[in-house]
Amino acid sequence: MELEDLAYPLFAGAVATDDPAVAFNGADYAIFLGAFPRKEGMERKDVMEKNVGIFNSQGQALSDFAKPSVKCVVVGNPANTNANILAKAAPKIPKQNITALTRLDHNRAQSLAASKLGVACDDLAGVIIWGNHSSTQYPDVRHAKSTATGKTVMDNVDHAYLEGDFLTTIQKRGAAIIAARKLSSAASAAKAICDHMRDWICGSGGRVVSMAVYSDGTQYGIKEGLYYSFPVTCKGDGTYDIVGALPIDDFSRGKMDATATELVEELALANELLGGK
């Protein structure tokens, strides 16, 4: 009823169903919100145990009933590893068509960095989220600058803050929201999903955005087979390019490797929970 009441011009109706064959039939796009939610006091392993079965079965249904060209974004945590489970269970879907949401982290980092630089959010370019949608993610502002003045974040904001409190604020923002409202992020997550899908399908206009995508092992030393958040540009036809050859200093390398290590460990646990599949 609320979807109808929004009166969006492109809304053509909705079908409510608990049958995956109906839900995924002929789907062009799929947003995977149907994860067991993280609650206060839960460890990521607890969340994963609930969700590996969900995403394994949904991946099988996706492969059987959706269009082979379907574009998917996984939101439910642990999002990167859930995307990996989904991809393994959906062999008919290209791995590049499955992504995980790190745009919420990107938006958080962009908002905070812009405020510290004293510019509007849409005047800041070059913010990157590397790795996992978790507390090990690396919000990188080493390449961020004002599009109007050229002022860089690194030259105008205290380095100790950027490598300390800034990182932990973004990394722990989701947990802070859960502690405050006893529920996960809502409006900001919905906005981030819209941003992610709009840019992926319509193009990011040359802007660099963050998406967790399949790693083929050729970019930034990240192991093949992980779903890892990279800086990407979206071309407007449902495809994207990972932004390559950015200079990576020792501080960034350490953070990028740490979050990759967590993803390797999560995937191993997920496979164990699935019986070694």
Strand order of the largest sheet: 1-2-3
Q: Any low-confidence stretches, pLDDT <50, length ≥5?
A: none
Strand content: 5-15%
How large, in whole angstroms, is the Cα Rg?
18 Å
Q: What is the N-to-C order of secondary-structure elements (H for helix, E for strand)?
A: HHEHEHEHEEEEHHHHHEEEH
The CATH architecture name of the largest domain reads Alpha-Beta Complex
How many β-strand stretches? 10
How far apart the termini lie comes to 41 Å
For the biggest sheet, the summary is: 3 strands, parallel
CATH class label of the largest domain: Alpha Beta
| Annotated CATH homologous superfamily of the largest domain | Lactate dehydrogenase/glycoside hydrolase, family 4, C-terminal
